[in-house]
Design goal:
The protein has five helices and 15 strands. The chain is α+β, with helices and mostly antiparallel strands. A hairpin with a 2-residue loop joins β6 and β7. The two termini are about 45 Å apart.
Length: about 325
């Protein structure tokens, strides 16, 4: 008994030493040139009543309860949110240096208590205003192993928020519009495909070449395509930087081919998220799709692959904002 107690104490001490070696504080910073006058953009950020129009979090819960102080555009002006999905907290203006700097205090009360400093820096550049959005925060001792993951998630949220803000300030420019459609039933699908695996940086070029070659092949060989092309993601590895997937066209049951494989995509229940915007925003949309499933506490079914459906032909779109893509995450 004493031996096992000694082992437990040693393991506990080792865990404490390891946790103590991990950083508790973190900094996340993202910047973007937004086509807007510095004063105009500064006023947009200062007016907390407009945050619901571009917040990457309120995107998940647009009817979240919001409360604003009497003068939300001044020092100590604040707004509070209390939602079922996005938790609860308060954001307060602490320093306002027009038109170059805003500093805020961010206090979370749910799902866990924490505090952070948020800053916005503005500088006029060619093409608009360079805005830098930064958070200085920290994690409780027991949550220190999560710091790296939290930083990655916040960076993606900030990038999406700036893209949404850019679209709000200049709607004529490329920007994402993301809609959570929710649970959908998809039927079993037979498809002809070309497989690919590799790092994310090689994916766009591989997909352009792969779909072009496969599309030309099905046309020249008289294979009837029954719908829009899609991608089947069998594995996503190494923090979403390496993919194992199929580039696919749906075909009739019973189709055979000697050169390309003909496979079957299992039907079932999926959570659908739709992006209206260019493919550059697909990474952010995938992040949103997975987050939305988790926020609603829906169980994912990772035994089935995820699907990315290209709803229209980008070559026929008059603008990048007209491209439509749906993401289907398998759920139970």
């Amino acid at each position: 008994m004493a031996f096992f107690l000694l082992i437990f104490i040693c393991a506990f001490l080792a865990a404490v030493i390891y946790m103590s070696s991990l950083p508790g504080a973190f900094e996340v910073s993202t910047s973007k040139i937004i086509e807007a006058d510095p004063d105009e953009l500064f006023n947009r950020i200062l007016d907390l009543r407009t945050w619901g129009q571009w917040s990457p979090w309120l995107l998940h819960e647009p009817d979240c309860a919001l409360e604003f102080s009497e003068n939300p555009n001044a020092v100590e002006g604040h707004y509070s949110w209390n939602g079922n999905l996005v938790g609860a907290g308060t954001l307060t203006h602490k320093q306002i240096d027009r038109p170059i700097y805003i500093e805020e205090e961010l206090v979370f009360t749910r799902p866990f208590k924490s505090k952070a400093k948020v800053t916005f820096d503005f500088s006029q550049v060619e093409g608009g205003t360079l805005m830098r959005w930064t958070m200085y925060g920290g994690m409780p001792f027991l949550f220190r192993p999560m710091v790296r993951r939290v930083k990655e998630m916040l960076a993606q949220e900030y990038e999406l928020g700036l893209a949404l803000l850019g679209g709000l300030m200049a709607p004529q420019n490329d920007h994402p519009r993301i809609e959570f459609i929710g649970a959908q039933q998809r039927e079993e699908t037979t498809y002809i495909s070309t497989p690919w695996e590799g790092p994310v940086e090689d994916l766009p070029a591989a997909m352009e070449a792969g779909y072009t070659e496969l599309g030309q092949y099905v046309i020249s060989n008289g294979i009837k395509v029954l719908g829009r092309p899609f991608a089947v993601y069998h594995k996503v590895q190494k923090r979403a930087t390496y993919f194992v997937m199929d580039m696919a066209f749906p075909v009739a049951d019973g189709t055979t081919d000697d050169k390309y494989g003909v496979k079957t995509l299992e039907g079932g229940k999926f959570h659908q998220t739709q992006l209206k915007g260019s493919y550059q925003y697909l990474k952010a949309t995938w992040h949103c799709a997975i987050n939305d499933v988790k926020m609603h506490k829906i169980k994912m079914d990772w035994k089935r692959p995820c699907v990315e459906l290209y709803e229209n032909d980008p070559r026929e779109a008059t603008h990048g904002n007209d491209i439509v893509t749906s993401i289907f995450v398998p759920i139970k």
